[in-house]
Design a protein that fits this description.
Blueprint: E1 2-4, H1 8-13, E2 22-24, H2 32-43, E3 47-53, E4 59-64, E5 71-72, E6 76-81, E7 86-90, H3 94-105, E8 109-113, H4 117-120, E9 129-131, H5 135-141, E10 148-152, H6 157-168, E11 174-177, H7 181-195, E12 205-206, H8 218-233, H9 244-256
Parallel strand pairs: 7-8, 7-10, 8-9, 10-11, 11-12
Antiparallel strand pairs: 1-2, 3-4, 3-6, 5-6
Helix pairs in contact: 3-8, 5-6
Length: 263
């Protein structure tokens, strides 16, 4: 174990905040096979607990069900590694570009799927992979895990509906589609009528997506959607008053009664 920041000169040298220290565990000769096993597990979407015995450097790996904070005891250091957060966006439009840029800034790896060549041709973000397959096929091949989210943004039922249906039967932590209250209700009805879904099986389908902030422009809508995704990711319970459908219904009802003057 090597420690930096004990003195003021070290803290300044390494850019540490006032009173901050940094400890590093050095593994001069790590086991290559163990590292390969770790990478294989992460690529398969697993959470892996890696324990290092501080007395002899021996490493043990085991899968786990929940993320855990870094833990250190007198004789071991335990860290849990998980797959990266991934976002799959259906539709390569302006709203998608805004949402993709926000997702990247928040640590997501972003992939866009759009089978429409004319929409792919206008895409201008080289950091984002763009796939041309049909969305439901791409979702099936994406190996969604609980660190994935899927957002449908085309407004085209042929593309959005099947992708959402495929994603709903995965471990993705967030599945939602763009649309007004009326369009989202119609989407649910189509899924129930033509795909044998039920209200219970559609319980995790989000739409209208986003938090209610009165958003109108693509950038504002993207901010609203990204905020909801982060809230779900971080386990925050969003009040009903902040959910788009509930908030709009409430506001419309109050306005009808003359008790609320729109800003």
């Amino acid at each position: 174990m090597v420690r930096y920041g004990v003195s003021a000169d070290e803290a300044h040298r390494f850019g540490l905040p006032c009173g901050g220290t940094m400890e590093l565990l050095l593994e001069p000769n790590p086991d290559g096979l163990s590292l390969a096993d770790l990478v294989t597990g992460l690529e398969a979407g697993q959470l892996i607990r890696r324990r290092i015995d501080l007395r002899d450097g021996k490493v043990t790996l085991e899968t786990t069900g929940e993320p855990e904070e870094l833990a250190r005891s007198a004789d071991s250091l335990t860290n849990t590694f998980g797959p990266e957060y991934r976002m799959l966006l259906i539709g390569a439009g302006l709203l998608t570009e805004y949402l993709a840029s926000m997702a990247i800034a928040n640590g997501f790896t972003v992939t866009v799927c759009d089978p429409r060549a004319e929409h792919r041709a206008t895409w201008s973000m080289p950091a984002v992979a763009v796939l041309a397959g049909m969305p439901d096929d791409v979702v099936a091949q994406f190996r969604l895990d609980r660190r994935c989210c899927v957002v449908a943004l085309t407004h085209d039922p042929k593309l959005d509906d099947l992708a959402l249906l495929e994603a709903l039967h995965s471990d993705a932590f967030y599945v939602g589609g763009i649309g007004s209250r009326r369009n989202c209700a119609a989407r649910r009805q189509r899924m129930i009528e033509y795909f044998d879904e039920t209200e219970e099986s559609l319980a995790n389908l989000r739409g209208p997506i986003g938090l209610y902030i009165g958003s109108k422009t693509p950038s504002e809508i993207a901010t609203s959607v990204m905020a909801e995704i982060l809230a779900v990711k971080n386990g925050v319970i969003v009040p009903l008053e902040m959910q788009v459908a509930k908030a709009k219904d409430y506001q419309a009802n109050v306005e009808r009664e003359g008790a609320l003057t729109p800003l």
